[in-house]
Amino acid sequence: MTPMLSVVDLVKHYPAPGGKSVLALDGVSFSLARGEIFGIVGESGCGKSTLARTLMRLATASSGRILYEGEDVMAARGRALKRLRGEIQMVFQDPFGSLNPRHTIERIIGEPLVVHNRPGRAARVRELLDLIGLPQSAASRLPHQFSGGQRQRIAIARALALSPKIIIADEAVSALDVSIQSQIINLLAQLRRDLGLAIIFISHDLSVVRHLSDRIGVMYFGRFVEQASAADLFAAPRHPYTRALISAVPKLPGAAGGPCGKRIVLSGDVPNLAHRPGGCLFHPRCYIAQDRCQKDVPPLAATRPDKPDWLSACHYADEIDGLVAETASENR
Amino acid sequence: MSLPATAATTKQVVLAVDGLRLEARIGALVEDVSLALEEGEMMGLVGESGSGKTITALSILGLLPAAAVRHAAGDIRFRGRPLSGLSEAEFNAIRGRDIAMIFQEPMTSLNPIMTIGAQIGEVLEIHRGLSGTARRDEVLRLLELVGLPASPDQLDRYPFQLSGGQRQRVMIAMAIACEPAVLIADEPTTALDVTIQAQILELIARMRERFGMACLLVTHDLGVVAETCDTVAVMYAGRVVEQGPVAAVFRTPLHRYTEALLRSIPAANPPGVSLPAIPGTVPAPGARPPGCAFADRCGAVIARCRADLPPRITRDDRVAYCWNPAA
What we know:
Distance between the termini of chain A: 49 Å
Largest interface: A-B, 43 and 46 residues
Number of helices of chain A: 10
Structural class of chain A: alpha/beta
Number of strands of chain A: 12
Order of helices and strands of chain A: EEEHEEHEHHHEHEHEEHHEEH
Oligomer: heterodimer
Strand order of the largest sheet of chain A: 6-7-8-3-9-10-12-11
Order of helices and strands of chain B: HEEEHEEHEHHHHEHEHEEHHHEE
Radius of gyration of chain B: 21 Å
Radius of gyration of chain A: 21 Å
Helix content of chain B: 25-40%
Number of helices of chain B: 12
Distance between the termini of chain B: 23 Å
Strand content of chain B: 15-25%
Helix content of chain A: 25-40%
Strand content of chain A: 15-25%
Shape of chain A: globular
Strand order of the largest sheet of chain B: 6-7-8-3-9-10-12-11
């Protein structure tokens, strides 16, 4: 099956002081099928938000290709770009900052319809309020009259106004309280089920991403280090960074601890884009690094013949269990 | 992690909050909050935004915004000595020496135009009277203790030159400089990445072991509480609704809010299923109903819940306030 969206070798440089440049995306590739939820996880500065902005054409990629239904997104101009933007919509983290405080909910949700000259605005707004679970009376009110969770519902309604095929949700539940998060997660899952939406769900919260996603990509330093189905990734991660990340999430009693068992506390800080190490970008923090990792860049490639869609960027993906056990015993 | 009940009874209470009530113009923010922190104990104070957990923590150190929030009733005692009513000077002698605090955003809690050497050194000068080389050596020792490079050039760095995790380490270095009996940590890892959070939580655990420091950890992250705390107090709409040893509370919660919250989070559910979310939202201060504030969102609500404040119920070393408890 051809994917609905494919991203090939996307590179994004930002200019930095002193004529230098910072590489925010360093050859990112992935694909998204119709109705699929693809989760992207990673720490600050790994490039996940830059990726979202680049896909939305809010930032311009330096090189690479983005194909939506076979059409080159990066080359689109004018009306073609406007049409594409109707197909791919975004929901942001902050439901306070992303809604105009002086506009009514009807105007906020209906604005995309005005911009795109779509008729039947009032009826569509009513339909959208139903869809996201707010009463019709919400239409005439202002954002400050709603709680954070309700505001995020409004932001989702706005994103859905043009009936997009893809929603990019960048930390869309991160600012919400625990009891409200679950409501919004359920809403996103329901929208996928009912509307056949594909979602790129970006978050630093692994348990949320795991819950919602079909497949997950783990980013580090502007690259994917691993991509796999959510079940595979959490059952037996084949990249040491994925493994450390999963193990670092504090667990509830009784919740599955995964294969990582004992916590791996990584030394060092999250990557600083201004200082790129050579070889494998993770090697300075890697607890199983070998000599080779300082020189050779590991490609993101299938490392399990029985699972061609499981990609890992580690020279030692096949030997990871043994190497982790060895490191653990050395530290005893 | 949790201490057996017998061992706990022999320990001394270092910090006690009793019947605390905090009011603002819109109404009560915190009502009838009681907590007791024993020597060396790590207690999680959990709740959602607006539950009153941060304002409770601030009131302990006399850090309430004076014009906006009034300490209307209740006692706060450190080793039996009442803290409420202390003068600013008396409070200053306690803050940082006996009870220290770290905050969520180390960027805004550190002085941006002071070097980290000067900021840590200030604590040592005020509370321990150190100056000159002794002060400088002690700063270096503290930096090493919290896992920062302990070289002299580090002393001249400014907060903006540090990462979020490094800034939180500086905050911790300042907090532990006097080996306080109590550390109040208000969402210390919320702004940090998960691999850095693991480092900071490990550091706090190490410092507790080293000084026998008690810690009140204010957080919304139930996983962090489960993994690091001995006891937990769950706040909802300005009240503590349940407290007790972490393992017991998480295994068989008594209060319906605790039960619903633990059930609703993704980590407690198989991937992909519809989460048993709690409907509705937390009532705002000033708009809290009579009776139980959780009644409108509760799946096990009975008629009494809406009419009267729930009674205090106890099970072993646990306390909850509920008309229709889950266990």
